């Protein structure tokens, strides 16, 4: 039996890279954009306090000597630069590592095309990508809000208008929730915090940060608003945004459409099981992560009426926490995107991830060449519905853990206390293999196994969900 950690580079939800930067604002006024647009093809379009990097204006600090730069930076050619050996040192800055110079420098910029061309419709703008066009094989984006204007109203584009808001499961007696504009790495971002109603069960907990896409009334935004109208996003392939958190493990990115909302919410759902929104679970990192949510991959949670996703009927989106604890995360650069080229996933057939592409994992763990397993189900515990130690909500029949990607949340494990390492292994993907039988399964670590009731729960051991256990062909053996 071999247990081994799996790479954290996911394709399933298309996390582009850990600590990646995209669509950064913090742009100065230039001759073409008058401070209203952060797209650029040259430094001249970004003003004196910014430079053009990868088609976006990025804030800089000019200098005459290193004494005028922040700690850890050095003055290079009149600009404060961060020393680096690879791109990781430049994450969040909108720059890349120039290894020959040893400092973070601008990325190459697109050549102006008068607005661009491609499959996304007519391009507009003064050069670069343009709205709705493609240049150089890169995805085209249409910015919803980069927050650089310092308010909570999204950018007005056509019929698109809306405001950011917070919410949770008890509108009549809500807990304190906040969303504040803060500065982070030279960009303005939203910092969302909140908690859930006291005593609420894990399968009834929800709350977070949302924004409507076609609702001009700032006093009537969100779940209880009848003033919002559908927005047609059928010309786009999905949403993209940047997100990070040093404490919250995961959120669900939800897309609210008229199909799942009631008439009181601007929708047309009339059954008793409305509100089962479309979405995708997103595991969070302490570093900024760029996430892409393709329309083709969003699904309902599964507890309400089954509907078909229609991108032409989007009322709004939300970054939702579904645990019973509190949430604390940062969001920036929400946009639509249109792929210029089709992504090529890995081959299908991996147990735990039959659709192909790598599973979405976080956390860290080592390797155990001679591990052992047992299986368990949630009804062995004291509560039918609740949380596991890693703060992921759970459900029964079948046993499922919210916010994990392996086999729709049914392939998971509780690792021994030593390897659990005070929750450091939470969210890590672990491959459990039986080489002699040519069988393997990939699970997500969601808990630590109970030492007091399981004498086998020692270093190198993992308890598996029954669904994952059966994948290894071990039912008749009980454990191996």
Please name the defining characteristics of this protein.
27 strands; globular; 480 residues; six-stranded antiparallel beta sheet; seven-stranded mixed beta sheet; 2% helix; disordered C terminus; single chain; mainly beta
Distance between the termini: 8 Å
Order of helices and strands: EEEEEEEEEEEEEEEEEEEEEEEEHEEEH
Number of distinct helices: 2
Structural class: mainly beta
Can you tell me about this structure?
The protein is an all-beta fold and 480 residues long. 2% of the residues lie in helices and 30% in strands. The protein has two helices and 27 strands. It has a seven-stranded mixed sheet. Strands 8, 10, 11, 13, 16 and 19 form a six-stranded antiparallel sheet that branches. It is globular and about 65 Å long.
Quick overview:
The protein has 480 residues and is mainly beta.
What's the SSE blueprint?
Layout (H helix, E strand, L loop, with lengths): L1 E4 L44 E4 L2 E4 L14 E3 L2 E3 L14 E3 L4 E3 L34 E6 L18 E5 L9 E7 L2 E9 L11 E6 L25 E7 L5 E8 L20 E6 L5 E6 L4 E2 L13 E8 L4 E13 L28 E2 L3 E5 L17 E2 L4 E2 L10 E4 L1 H4 L8 E6 L4 E10 L12 E5 H6 L9
Parallel strand pairs: 21-27, 24-26
Antiparallel strand pairs: 1-20, 1-25, 2-3, 4-5, 6-7, 8-19, 9-12, 10-11, 11-19, 12-18, 13-16, 13-19, 14-15, 14-18, 15-17, 22-23, 24-27, 25-26
């Amino acid at each position: 039996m071999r247990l081994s950690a799996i790479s954290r580079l996911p394709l399933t939800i298309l996390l582009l890279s850990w600590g990646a930067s995209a669509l950064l604002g913090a742009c100065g006024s230039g001759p073409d954009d008058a401070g209203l647009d952060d797209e650029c093809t040259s430094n001249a379009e970004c003003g004196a306090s910014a430079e053009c990097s990868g088609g976006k204006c990025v804030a800089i600090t000019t200098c005459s000597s290193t004494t005028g730069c922040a700690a850890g930076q050095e003055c290079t050619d009149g600009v404060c630069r961060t020393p680096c050996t690879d791109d990781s040192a430049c994450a969040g800055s909108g720059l890349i590592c120039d290894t020959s110079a040893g400092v973070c420098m601008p990325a190459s910029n697109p050549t102006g095309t008068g607005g661009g061309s491609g499959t996304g419709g007519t391009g507009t703008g003064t050069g670069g990508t343009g709205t709705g066009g493609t240049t150089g094989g890169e995805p085209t984006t249409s910015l919803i809000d980069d927050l650089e204007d310092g308010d909570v109203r999204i950018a007005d584009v056509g019929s698109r208008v809306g405001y950011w808001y917070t919410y949770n499961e008890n509108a009549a007696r809500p807990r304190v929730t906040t969303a504040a504009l803060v500065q982070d790495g030279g960009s303005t971002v939203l910092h969302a915090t909140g908690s859930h109603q006291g005593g609420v069960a894990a399968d009834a907990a929800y709350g977070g940060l949302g924004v409507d896409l076609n609702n001009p009334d700032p006093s009537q935004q969100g779940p209880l608003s009848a003033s919002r109208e559908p927005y047609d996003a059928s010309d786009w392939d999905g949403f993209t945004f940047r997100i990070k958190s040093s404490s919250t493990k995961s959120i669900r990115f939800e897309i609210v459409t008229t199909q799942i909302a009631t008439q009181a919410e601007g929708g047309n759902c009339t059954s008793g099981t409305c509100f089962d929104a479309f979405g995708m679970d997103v595991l969070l990192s302490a570093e900024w992560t760029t996430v892409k949510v393709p329309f083709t991959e969003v699904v309902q949670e599964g507890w309400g009426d089954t509907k078909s996703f229609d991108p032409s009927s989007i009322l709004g989106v939300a970054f939702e926490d579904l645990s019973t604890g509190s949430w604390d995360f940062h969001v920036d650069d929400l946009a639509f995107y249109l792929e210029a080229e089709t992504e090529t996933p890995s081959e299908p057939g991996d147990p735990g991830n039959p659709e192909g592409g790598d599973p979405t994992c976080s956390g860290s763990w080592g390797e155990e060449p001679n591990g052992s397993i047992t299986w368990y189900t949630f009804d062995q515990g004291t509560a039918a519905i609740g949380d596991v130690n890693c703060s992921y909500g759970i459900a029964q029949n079948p046993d499922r853990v919210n916010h994990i990607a392996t086999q729709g949340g049914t392939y998971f494990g509780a690792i021994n206390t030593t390897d659990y390492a005070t929750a450091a292994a939470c969210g890590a993907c672990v491959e459990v293999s039986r080489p002699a039988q040519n069988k393997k399964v990939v699970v997500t670590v969601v808990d630590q196994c109970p030492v007091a009731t399981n004498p086998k729960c020692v270093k190198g051991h993992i308890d598996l969900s029954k669904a994952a256990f059966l994948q290894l062909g071990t039912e008749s053996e009980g454990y191996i």
